[in-house]
Amino acid sequence: MDRRHDLDTLRVIAFALLILYHVGMVYVVDWGFHIKSPTLLAWVEWPMVLVNRWRMSLLFLLSGITLGLVLARRAPARLVGTRSWRLLLPLAFGIVAVVPVQVYCEARTLGTIAPGFAAFLLRYLQLRPWPAGTFTGAEYGFTWNHLWYLAYLWVYTLGVLAALPLLRAFGGTRLADWLTARGRWLLWTLPALWLLFALLVLAPRYPSTHAVAGDWFNHAKYLPVFAFGVLIARRATIWTALDAHRWTLTGLALLGATVYMTLRVIGRLLDTGAMSAAGLDAWMPLPGWKLVSVGAHALYAWTALLAMLAWGARLLNRPWPGLRYASEAVYPWYILHQSLIVFAAYWLIPLRLGPLWEPLLVLAITVAGCLLIHELLIRRIRWLRPLFGLPRAARPARGAGPGHADVSTARSA
Predict the structure, then answer these.
(1) Quick one: CA dihedral 347, 350, 353, 354, positive or negative?
(2) Domain residue spans of the chain
(3) DSSP category for residue 212
(4) How far is CA 370 from CA 23, 79, 256, 396, in A?
(5) What is the SS3 assignment for 150?
(6) Membrane spanning segments where (predicted)?
(7) Are 375 and 360 in contact (CB under 8 A)?
(8) What end-to-end distance do the CA atoms of the chain give, in Å?
(9) Tens digits of per-residue pLDDT, 133-184?
(10) What would the DSSP string read from start to end of 9-43?
């Protein structure tokens, strides 16, 4: 099986965007985060909105594809143990050893705890509930903050692995063959329609919590793309069709993004009173415009994912200098980055460095911290490697398959 360099590269790009996005969260107006700078940047919202509509879905999609590729080499029952080890061990370690840094900075900023990280950590490691409002998730006794992705990925992975024998027993293989051959139009349209339903019906009722239980809108958004990735991973007909329709998919994504962002700008003007709703009402009642906006959102989110897969397979399926190193670094950097962002912002905000130097230094400290901790400690200390999702021994010089760059397995299926 050939190595899929495009999946490696897309994953590196996705996690690089995640770091930029979380730095932006410190400065974007009206979006809650663990620490906020008084130096808010209004313009940051617009590129963040564009990225936000597909950024986490792309990670779940890539992880689903990776699982589908690995299933060609490993039995589902065997994967349960290896995937649980690669996901749950870093999750548990992150909760007790990495996330407390950002929790402490958040609580100190809120003024809900006394100074002293050692005393705070001793209390935090007791995993007893805190008074509500002490920090995000305090009522649970601990929090996983940005590491929620690992918990969701574990749940989805075990769900798919458990369902596969049943699907195969009841004709699931034949259905998958039909969907990826003659029923491809359903794969192109149904996910977008499902997302439209989720946005209209589930999102207002089930706001995002990242707590697994009861987080129905997020499950409705992420589980289908993960399952789609598993389905298409080894289906050559799908990848051929994606390549053939790459320009159409790109055009639809641009159309959806343009309509969605235009209506979002108009909505902002209506909210501020800079524009009257009378003109819009003459064309269509405001609930109709809301439906158009949500429909454009769903169209953009889904076709952008397909277009990225298509262009990635066409342009990125080749090695480039540093890809192997970057692919391995993804998992440790993911675990470390948000705590470093919050820590850097916590120390830099009082210095009042302004709207240019402060965010640039937060980003620089985050990247430097991830690089140094990964390179000098995680890669070189055998017992540290599994805690950050890496195999205990360094990788051999040559890979052995396309599915070993996933953040959830750290090149060890």
Answers:
(1) positive
(2) 5-388
(3) S
(4) 14, 29, 35, 23
(5) helix
(6) 12-34, 54-72, 84-104, 146-164, 185-203, 249-270, 290-311, 331-349, 361-378
(7) no
(8) 14
(9) 999 999 999 999 999 999 999 999 999 999 988 888 877 888 888 888 888 8
(10) HHHHHHHHHHHHHHHHHTTSTT---SS--SS--GG
Gap between the Cα atoms of 393 and 94, Å rounded: 21
Nearest to 210 by CA among 137, 297, 160: 137
Q: pLDDT, tens digit, for every residue of 60-91?
A: 999 999 999 999 888 888 899 999 999 999 99
Q: Which of 309, 299, 220 is nearest to 13 (CA)?
A: 309
Q: What was the pLDDT predicted at 267?
A: 83
Between CA 142 and CA 379 the distance in angstroms is 28
Which tokens is 195 given? 């997302």
360-369 average pLDDT score? 98
Mean pLDDT for 277-299 is 84
In angstroms, the CA 260 to CA 196 distance is 13
Quickly list H helices, 170-215.
172-181, 184-197, 203-205
- Concatenating the DSSP letter of every residue in 266-324 gives HHHHHHHTSS-THHHHHHS-HHHHHHHHHHHHHHHHHHHHHHHHHHHHHHS-S--TTHH
Tokens of 290: 């809301």
As a whole number of angstroms, the distance between CA 64 and CA 228 comes to 7
Does residue 397 surpass a pLDDT of 80? no
Cα dihedral 102, 103, 108, 109 in deg (nearest 10): 60
Unique residue bearing structure tokens 């979006």: 31
Q: What is the C-alpha to C-alpha distance for residues 275 and 352, in angstroms, rounded to an integer?
A: 35
Token couple for 69? 């590729």
For 233-286, the pLDDT digits (tens) are 999 999 999 999 999 999 999 999 999 999 999 888 777 666 666 667 767 777
Measured CA to CA in angstroms, residue 12 lies from 17, 18, 103, 152, 403 at distances of 9, 10, 27, 20, 14
